[in-house]
Amino acid sequence: MIITTTPTVEGHQIVEYHGVVFGEVITGINFVKDFFAGIRNVVGGRSGSYEKELTNARTAALSEMEQRAQRMGANAVVGVDVDYEVMGSDNGMMMVSATGTAVTIR
Pairing mode, if any, of strands 2-3 and 76-87? Predict the structure, then answer.
């Protein structure tokens, strides 16, 4: 399946629109990761544990979106947008959502 942020797929014609598809993942960051990320904030540097969690959540959201598009009969998703949202201020939860338009291309 082709997944793209562009509204079309170069070299292909969209022959059918199936509708908007989405994938959402809500993930929590645990105390140990928060503690070590706090240390990184003081001494500088990147937080590998947060980056890994973000990558995993983004991959899962895109995968869920792709599976939903396949169930609709699509073979591509165009106009994909990925959003990140912190849920609440103190609960350590984050939502990653991916949305796009499921289409059939040839």
Answer: parallel
Beta-carbon contacts of residue 2 (< 8 Å; ≥ 6 apart) = 9, 12, 75, 76, 77, 105
CA-CA distance, 11 to 8, in Å (whole number)?
Answer: 9
Q: What is the arithmetic mean of pLDDT over 15-37?
A: 78
Confidence of residue 65 (pLDDT cuts 50, 70, 90): very high
Asked if the model's pLDDT at residue 92 lies above 90, the reply is no
- Residue 92, phi then psi, degrees to nearest 5: 70, 25
| Contact assessment for residue 88 and residue 8, using Cβ atoms and an 8 Å cutoff | no
86: exposed, middle or buried (Cβ count in 10 Å: 0-12, 13-18, 19+): exposed
